[in-house]
Amino acid sequence: MKKEYTNGEVTVIWQPEKCSHSALCVKGLPAVFKPKQSPWITLEGTDSNTIIDQIKKCPSGALSFRMNNDSSI
Asked: Alpha-carbon distance 9 to 26, whole Å?
């Protein structure tokens, strides 16, 4: 299962079965990753580059992203 969240510029893809629950996303960017809310990812919390930087730190690969204007996708 995959869930996708977008702010129009970037789409965050979450694959819950891969998640190791390290909570690096929550600790690193609590304005975006809010596990006690639904949806738990709210991209309006900060800019796209900050979100991408945090996603790159995900140790399990459960979080990934794609740029919405990338025609090579």
From this structure: 21
